[in-house]
Amino acid sequence: MLNRLAYRFHQSLERHFPEQRLFLKSDTETRFIRLRPATQIIALVGGTLALAWTIVATALIMMDSIGAGSAREQSARQQALYEERLSALSSDRDLRAEEAARAQERFNIALAQVSEMQERLLASEDRRRELETGIDAIQNTLRRTIKERDEARSEAERATLALNAQDGGATEVGRMRDTVATLEILTGALGEAAEARNVELAAAETAREETRLIADEKKALEMRNDAIFAKLEEALTISVEPLDNMFREAGMSPEDLLNAVRDGYSGQGGPLMPITFSTSGGSLTAEELRANAILGGLDRMNMYRIAAFKLPFAMPVKDSFRWTSGFGYRRDPKGYGTRMHEGTDMAGSYGTPIYATADGVVTHAGWDSGYGRLVKIRHDFGVETRYAHLSQVRVEVGQRVSRGDRIGDMGNSGRSTGTHLHYEVRLGGTAVNPMTFIKAAKNVF
């Protein structure tokens, strides 16, 4: 039975895959190789499987190449957009600072004009008081002259009556002449007094008009100053608020940070300080309070600028790269279980320039076990940054560097599986996520 089934199976195979013979001829003899149907089927299946595997492997390689190219292009586009945004924000920040400087100049000019107008107003007020005093003196003189005239008339009448009683009517004409002469003298004196009074009244009216014009100019100047103050306050709010948010998102208290910066600039030539206006023991006016508030805001913005250069808010890699591993626990790339990854990895081309992310002093520049070639930079406020797996170190221990200075080249030294930069940020010796600082600075720099 089994032989019959095998025979039938063999017959069906021969109908589709007839037996083939491969002849091999030499100089002395001829040989052949018999290819049975089963052998042909095995060869066909093996060739089909090999062809399928080749197609699948080629497709996977092409998909991986396309995906890697798209990722690189996307990373390059994101880097270009990031740099463009940084440039635009930097230009806007410089424009805001220039506007604030111009506004401060205008404010100083306005203060000088207000001071000049106040001096003119005080001088006008003194003149008005002098004129009022002169008018009072003229009026007192006029009253005294009128009183003396009346007394003279009374005396003249008494003298006339006495003469009439002694001399009779013969001297009437002489007495009348004396009376007329006296009246003429008094009338002249009264006229001169009236003319002097009119002159003083005209001068007083002119002084009042000047005082009114000065008051109008002062009011207009106060309105202009109020508009300038409003623009300065708005510009400061727009400029300072993103800086406040940046330091808070980085996990730092803005007030503690500013106090630390001020302590470092306690000597001469340090930060801006609000102007104190002398009020001779009196309280400050509303304009002086607003001016001091604006100057305080400018001082705060200047302190933020100093702190921003002393903290790692910049990027250590400016060329194209891709993020390969973030901060936190991960599987060890060497296969030693799960370990804490205390930094951020950025993969790029071998020899890509590495830059300092903040002002500081180099404390280590050389080989350090698993880090490979390592650079450590100590910054202010207890902050330290580390740049590991470098191919070349370009700084020395004790060297002071500024943000943006080139400190090394990307490499694959130490405990590493490929070319990349291992970037760490430490606060008080404890590693923190570097992306906290990088993301916090995105909307400012």
Could you describe the 3D structure shown?
- The chain is of the alpha+beta class and about 450 residues long.
- The protein has helices at about 1-15, 35-165, 170-250, 255-265, 285-310, 435-440, and strands at about 20-25, 30-35, 320-325, 330, 340, 345, 355, 360-365, 375-380, 385-395, 400, 405-410, 420-425, 430.
- It contains six helices and 14 strands.
- It has two domains: about 15-220, no CATH class; about 315-440, Distorted Sandwich (Glucose Permease (Domain IIA)), CATH 2.70.70.
- The model is unreliable at about 265-275 (pLDDT under 50).
Topology, element by element:
Layout: H1 2-16, E1 20-25, E2 30-35, H2 37-167, H3 172-249, H4 254-264, H5 286-310, E3 322-325, E4 328-331, E5 338-341, E6 344-347, E7 353-355, E8 360-367, E9 373-378, E10 383-393, E11 400-401, E12 406-410, E13 421-427, E14 430-432, H6 434-440
Antiparallel strand pairs: 1-2, 3-6, 4-5, 6-13, 7-12, 8-9, 8-11, 9-10, 10-12, 10-13, 13-14
Helix pairs in contact: 2-3, 3-5, 3-6, 4-5
- Please write the string of helix (H) and strand (E) elements: HEEHHHHEEEEEEEEEEEEH
Tell me the fraction of residues in β-strands, as a range.
15-25%
| Sheet of most strands | 10 strands, antiparallel
Please state the overall shape, judged from the principal axes of the Cα atoms.
Answer: rod-shaped
Q: Tell me the helix content.
A: 55-70%
Radius of gyration: 51 Å
